[in-house]
């Protein structure tokens, strides 16, 4: 092994510190997870006759309790119709295999699969485009070979071998990407090999004194938290995809978690990271809390979206589990007041672990998702009574609701609560109870399942996000909604929904999430194309309104169009130089970040060499 | 010969006077342009200006200390009080009731395009709206509010000049119906910073919509004016800065069969200053005007233009988005786009200006004068000519409101409404009435803009100008074809390449007078060329050459443009002959042109069109001459001083003479010219 591939982390590791983690998600993913949509196979919305249910017992709205309000809401908004359930294909494209590579892998006794189904379910992420194509079986190119390395060294071997034989590699974590970053390139002629990191998910060591832990990159969120919880610890990174996304994926996409106010975003959590590239292993050999050491190459790894190498081992900060976890909620007379209040809270830097603000439309949408089973019942009714009886000037069709999550020890949380409610009071924010807050957060995980329900019924929906300075936050929301409405009108779309919420707050601005869905006409041949046109217009409007290309979903392929204007042409060149330095043969050929015309022409480049 | 398109279009109009309701008590729950979280009180806008980052940064910059800053803030509050509009529904109802009565008094019909109102209603609630009406009369001011109030549309905030404000009582009344006031001073940075921010709040925060006149002032000539882009760019800036997604702009066309101010305009164009608008004067004027019949008026909201659709692909709003809006300015490219847009709006307005019988009569009368054959112009001949003109305007695309089932009746009605200009004599032949302008001598004490024209001249000029005011509204349709024909007249087999050069040159000369926006020139050329070919006014000889035909439309076009051409020729010659060696201010030119031409005309020189006395035309001539390098302009003690570029000017004069030699017109409106002055 050449010197560049030597590394420092865990070099002479005491093998006894290593803890194997049994993952919730099995190696054969399709046994637990849906192949044609989001999440667990047993958890989904379904309609029998005229009633709507959510199945499975994983989420509080499940257990097949009827959801009458949601059905009514869907009916009102979209006028449902039913399409056929998709069928898993039985035949798959023949794998293109690089003989030397394939044979050597077999010789090495590496875990591998050329099974059609295994390859098929790993050709995509979770964008609408992906899901629609997978349901319609439209992918003409899927990975040719799946590999499950078990440790860093396995990865090193694979990467070297791939580089020698010009085989393309796709680092694959949880496959939850929503930027097209993981989607199998359709015009790749080389053998495409997926490196599934799921079997590389151990806790290598834990340092309780310094509160740091070293994990392998393939560990998925819920496994990681469960493992730490046993030690009374938490990492506190909770993206909404935490059930399925991986540590390596978070780093590669610059992910953001709900509780970043307490624990930070992924870039704040990561201390050291090891990435295997075609030229060797890149890592920063310092464990100190902060260094001044020239440009920080961790920042090159963060957001590299699988194009520069594979992250294998990561040292992260961990925290003691909080003693108290408490929810809360606030009702504002309108969204504008809510934004002003969030702004003030951010200004005072007293944000609780999470604070989110929904617009009126989303509030109603959320309310419709209540079953008659306790937790989710009666909020709207009691709220109605409350508002009508106690307070004037709150119109149910205008109010905006904020959900809060506090974490810390008892006094701390109490102090925080008091302060927040005091500030809210000045912006006409009324306390609306704990359960409503809790409900909001649970809903977060359920919302992802709705897209599949929609797709079954001719409704296309997707979310997208941005970050924006405070002064432009409100106008951005209004502009983007107006833009989408106008674009729908132009296309004769009658049934649609646009709603938004603020999901993160910072010193200088906020993160805003949009949900957009519409019912497509039976004579529309390309609803996804139509959706994408509109989302593109919406993204243009986001940028024109002062928003960013993405707060945490990343660029991938679907936002590459706006990359150059976001980082300047010199920025693009700088990225390209890094790419050429680390991967001159484009082994990691996902082609993210750059538009087609900006792509490096590796063929002419390599023929010159 | 029915003007089918016009007719169809006019079917959407309904006479509002037929369905009046009591405005004092009618319910008013208007549709608003943009739904926001809550309705905003007009007073809030002023406070938002004072609180805005932009204004506060500016205050910091210009204040010496805390005290000074406080003082300036107070000053700003005073200015905002002067600017800010208000909204008192009782005042709207009262004023509405008065206007309603007035309308019924003055007009036979108040036609409103109700389809256009429905179209407008359909876009209400989704975005801010800017109404941009044409401006031919003070009546325009009241009209928009009146129509909005009657049809349950939110009454927009209306930008008004300070001259209105100073009409004591009336200014405050108008303010309460939504007028906000703008000074006409330039360069007062403090004031404009406040005003601009106020406009910003109107667009981004208020939900009323806003109205202003893109031409900046009433067009005294009844032609379109070169648009002003100052207010417009203030209003559109939030779109460029990414603060709003879209604005719908609604050009609005208000046409009058006869404008209230007709005679005032004529005097103003001749240089007799208008009386200052005092409240007393205003009411007296109203009383004098009230007993007359002003025929029909037409009100039409043009198709709303989405700024996002119109400019979306041409602007890069992202460029501004990454910094705060309040620290940025529009760049030059964007200002050019706004000018493009302004011209587009003017054209949309013009397309929907309704042409009436009298406009055609005026054109026809002029044509007969120029061909020296007024004698033959009887009612019957007039009728035939009108039919020809109708056909022509139909193809051009104009909306002409003439009852062609009974043309004779239409002619008589039109003649009656305008009986101060043309009269029918003897065997039904038609004649221009000479004025008796004795009364003007009483204007003695007032400051003159130009030369003191003598009574003999005024007696001729007043009716000729009055008549011209009715030709002018048709120039939107006629000027471009006329320039083509003008280029071709007296020439055989003209190379298209040369034709284009000539057309472009003439466009440059008449750029301001006829509002010929250079950035539309190429497209205009193609369109006009196709139109003239279709009308068989020109015919192609081969791929590269064209000739004029013998179309009867040729004389229509030539006589329509010749008053302007003649005026330009006269002014240019006079400048060339008299001002080659010295610097001069525009007033000197006014005096020279008016006095020399007066002398000549009273001597019986019929090669001069009396419209050449028009000060506004002389002004646009000066502007054009600067534009094409025949004059230099420089500011001295805040007055523009001009000097002649002899070589350029000399060749221009030769050129114009050359063009003129192809015209065989005489401008003999009256037979006998006995002058006491000579
Ligand atoms: C319902 C839902 C909710 C979501 N909520 C959030 C949220 O709250 N916050 C948020 O930030 N994101 C969210 N996402 C987006 C997505 O979960 C994140 O982008 C996540 O970080 C992807 O992780 P993954 O393990 O699934 O990576 P994958 O989807 O497998 O891969 C994503 C990219 O990272 C690369 N990659 C993966 N692993 C490695 C590795 N070990 N080394 C190098 N490159 C690698 C891949 O090549 C690919 O380019 C959500 C997505 C969904 C579907």
TrEMBL record, chain A:
Its main location: other. Catalyzes the exchange of an acyl for a long-chain alkyl group and the formation of the ether bond in the biosynthesis of ether phospholipids. SUPFAM superfamilies: FAD-binding/transporter-associated domain-like, FAD-linked oxidases, C-terminal domain. It catalyses: a long chain fatty alcohol + a 1-acylglycerone 3-phosphate = a 1-O-alkylglycerone 3-phosphate + a long-chain fatty acid + H(+). It comes from Polypedilum vanderplanki. It comes from the Eukaryota. It is found in: Peroxisome. This is Alkylglycerone-phosphate synthase.
From TrEMBL, chain B:
GO terms for biological process: ether lipid biosynthetic process; fatty acid metabolic process; phospholipid biosynthetic process; triglyceride biosynthetic process. The keyword Amino-acid biosynthesis does not apply. Its main location: membrane. One of its GO terms (molecular function) is glycerol-3-phosphate O-acyltransferase activity. The keyword Membrane applies. Residues 129-257 form the Phospholipid/glycerol acyltransferase domain. Keywords: Acyltransferase, Membrane, Transferase. It is found in: Endomembrane system. It comes from the Eukaryota. One of its GO terms (cellular component) is mitochondrial membrane. It is a peripheral membrane protein. Belongs to the GPAT/DAPAT family. This is Phospholipid/glycerol acyltransferase domain-containing protein. It comes from Polypedilum vanderplanki (Sleeping chironomid midge).
């Amino acid at each position: 092994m050449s010197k560049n591939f030597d590394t420092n982390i865990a070099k002479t590791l005491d093998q006894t510190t290593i803890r194997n983690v049994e993952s919730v998600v099995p190696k054969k993913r399709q046994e637990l997870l849906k192949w044609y949509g989001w999440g667990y196979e047993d958890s989904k919305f379904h309609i029998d006759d005229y009633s709507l249910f959510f199945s499975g017992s994983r989420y509080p709205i499940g257990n097949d309790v009827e959801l009458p309000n949601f059905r009514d809401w869907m009916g009102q908004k979209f006028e449902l119709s039913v399409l056929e359930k998709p069928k898993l294909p039985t035949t798959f494209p023949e794998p293109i295999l690089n003989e030397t590579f394939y044979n050597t892998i077999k010789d090495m006794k590496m875990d591998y699969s050329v099974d059609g189904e295994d390859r098929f379910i790993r050709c995509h992420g979770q964008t609408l485009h992906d899901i629609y194509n997978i349901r319609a079986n439209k992918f003409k190119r899927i990975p040719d070979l799946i590999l499950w390395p078990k440790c860093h060294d396995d990865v090193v071997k694979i990467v070297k071998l791939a580089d020698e034989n010009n085989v393309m590699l796709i680092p694959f974590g949880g496959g939850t990407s929503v930027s097209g970053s993981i989607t199998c390139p359709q015009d790749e002629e080389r053998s495409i090999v997926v490196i599934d990191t799921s079997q590389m998910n151990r806790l290598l060591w834990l340092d309780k004194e310094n509160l740091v832990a070293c994990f392998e990159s393939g560990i998925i969120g819920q496994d990681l938290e469960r493992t730490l919880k046993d030690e009374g610890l938490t990492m506190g990174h909770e993206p909404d995809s935490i059930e399925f996304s991986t540590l390596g994926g978070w780093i590669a996409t610059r992910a953001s978690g709900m509780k970043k106010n307490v624990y930070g975003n992924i870039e704040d959590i990561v201390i050291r990271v090891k990435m295997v590239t075609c030229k060797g292993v890149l890592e920063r050999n310092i464990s100190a809390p902060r260094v001044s050491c020239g440009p920080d190459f961790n920042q090159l790894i963060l957001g590299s979206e699988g194009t520069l190498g594979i992250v294998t081992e990561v040292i992260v900060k961990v925290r003691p589990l909080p003693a108290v976890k408490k929810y809360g909620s606030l009702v504002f007379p309108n969204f504008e007041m809510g934004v002003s209040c969030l702004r003030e809270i951010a200004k005072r830097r007293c944000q609780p672990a999470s604070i989110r603000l929904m617009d009126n439309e989303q509030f109603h949408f959320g309310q419709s998702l209540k079953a008659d089973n306790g937790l989710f019942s009666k909020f709207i009714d009691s709220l109605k009574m409350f508002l009508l009886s106690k307070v004037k000037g709150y119109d149910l069709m205008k109010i905006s609701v904020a959900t809060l999550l506090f974490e810390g020890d008892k006094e701390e949380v109490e102090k925080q609560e008091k302060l927040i409610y005091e500030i809210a009071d000045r912006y006409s924010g009324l306390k609306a109870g704990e359960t409503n807050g809790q409900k909001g957060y649970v809903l977060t995980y359920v919302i992802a399942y709705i897209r599949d329900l929609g797709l079954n019924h001719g409704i296309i929906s997707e979310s997208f996000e941005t970050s924006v300075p405070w002064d432009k936050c409100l106008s951005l929301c209004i502009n983007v909604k107006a833009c989408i409405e106008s674009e729908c009108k132009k296309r004769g779309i009658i049934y649609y929904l646009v709603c938004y919420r603020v999901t993160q707050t910072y010193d200088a601005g906020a993160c805003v999430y949009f949900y957009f869905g519409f019912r497509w006409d039976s004579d529309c041949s390309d609803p996804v194309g139509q959706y994408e046109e509109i989302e593109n217009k919406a993204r243009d409007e986001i940028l024109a309104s002062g928003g960013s290309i993405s707060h945490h979903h990343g660029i991938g392929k679907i936002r590459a169009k706006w990359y150059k204007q976001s980082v300047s042409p010199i920025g693009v060149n700088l990225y390209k130089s890094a790419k050429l330095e680390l991967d001159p043969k484009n082994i990691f050929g996902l082609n993210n970040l750059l538009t087609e015309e900006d792509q490096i022409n590796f063929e002419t480049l390599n023929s010159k060499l | 010969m029915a003007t089918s398109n016009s007719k169809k279009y006019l079917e959407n109009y309904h006479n509002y006077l037929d369905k009046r309701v009591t405005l004092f008590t009618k319910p008013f729950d208007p549709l608003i342009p943009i739904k926001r979280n809550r309705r905003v009180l007009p007073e809030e806008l002023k406070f938002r200006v004072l609180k805005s980052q932009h204004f506060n940064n500016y205050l910091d910059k210009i204040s010496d200390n805390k005290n000074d800053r406080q003082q300036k803030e107070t000053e700003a509050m005073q200015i905002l009080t002067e600017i800010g509009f208000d909204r008192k529904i009782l005042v709207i109802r009262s004023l509405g009731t008065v206007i309603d009565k007035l309308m019924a008094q003055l007009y036979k019909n108040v036609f409103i395009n109700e389809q256009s109102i429905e179209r407008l209603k359909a876009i209400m609630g989704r975005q801010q709206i800017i109404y941009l009406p044409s401006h031919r009369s003070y009546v325009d001011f009241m009209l928009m509010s009146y129509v909005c109030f009657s049809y349950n549309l939110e009454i927009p905030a209306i930008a008004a000049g300070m001259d209105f404000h100073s009409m004591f009582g009336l200014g405050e009344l108008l303010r309460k119906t939504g007028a906000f006031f703008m000074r006409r001073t330039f360069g007062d940075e403090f004031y404009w910073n406040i005003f601009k921010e106020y406009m910003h709040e109107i667009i981004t925060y208020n939900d009323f919509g806003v109205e202003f006149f893109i031409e900046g002032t009433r067009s005294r000539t009844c032609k379109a004016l070169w648009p002003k882009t100052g207010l417009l760019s203030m209003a559109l800036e939030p779109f460029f800065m990414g603060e709003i997604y879209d604005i719908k702009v609604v050009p609005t066309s208000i046409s009058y069969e006869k404008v209230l101010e007709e005679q005032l305009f004529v005097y103003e164009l001749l240089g007799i200053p208008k009386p200052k608008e005092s409240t007393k004067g205003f009411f007296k004027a109203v009383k004098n005007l009230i007993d007359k019949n002003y025929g029909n008026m037409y009100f039409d909201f043009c198709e709303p233009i989405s700024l996002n659709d119109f400019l979306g692909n041409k602007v890069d709003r992202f460029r501004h988005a990454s910094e705060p809006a309040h620290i940025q300015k529009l760049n030059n490219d964007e200002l050019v786009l706004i000018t493009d847009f302004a011209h587009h709006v003017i054209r949309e307005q013009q397309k929907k200006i309704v042409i009436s019988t009298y406009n055609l009569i005026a054109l026809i009368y002029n044509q007969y004068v120029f061909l020296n054959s007024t004698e033959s112009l009887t009612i019957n001949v007039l009728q035939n000519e009108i039919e020809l003109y109708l056909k022509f305007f139909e193809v051009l695309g104009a909306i002409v409101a003439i009852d062609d089932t009974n043309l004779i009746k239409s002619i008589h009605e039109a003649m009656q409404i305008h009986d101060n200009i043309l009269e029918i004599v003897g065997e039904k032949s038609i004649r221009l009435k000479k004025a008796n302008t004795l009364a003007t001598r009483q204007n003695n004490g007032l400051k003159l803009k130009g030369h003191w024209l003598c009574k003999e001249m005024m007696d001729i000029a007043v009716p000729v100008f009055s008549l011209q005011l009715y030709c002018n509204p048709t120039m939107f349709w006629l000027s471009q074809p006329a320039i083509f024909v003008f280029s071709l007249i007296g020439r055989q087999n003209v190379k298209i390449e040369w034709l284009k050069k000539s057309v472009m040159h003439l466009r440059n000369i008449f750029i301001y007078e006829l509002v010929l926006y250079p950035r539309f020139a190429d497209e205009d050329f193609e369109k006009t060329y196709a139109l003239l070919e279709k009308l068989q006014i020109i015919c192609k000889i081969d791929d590269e050459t064209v000739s004029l035909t013998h179309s009867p439309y040729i004389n229509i076009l030539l006589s329509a443009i010749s008053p302007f051409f003649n005026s330009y020729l006269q002014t240019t010659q006079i400048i060339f002959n008299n001002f080659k060696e010295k610097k001069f201010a525009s007033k000197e030119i006014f005096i020279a042109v008016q006095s020399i031409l007066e002398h000549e005309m009273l001597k019986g020189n019929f090669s001069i069109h009396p419209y050449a006395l028009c000060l506004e035309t002389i002004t646009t001539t000066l502007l054009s001459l600067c534009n094409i390098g025949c004059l230099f302009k420089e500011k001295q003690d805040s007055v523009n001083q001009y000097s002649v570029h002899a070589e350029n000017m000399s060749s221009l004069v030769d050129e114009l003479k050359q063009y003129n030699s192809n015209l065989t017109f005489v401008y003999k409106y009256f037979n006998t010219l006995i002058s006491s002055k000579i």
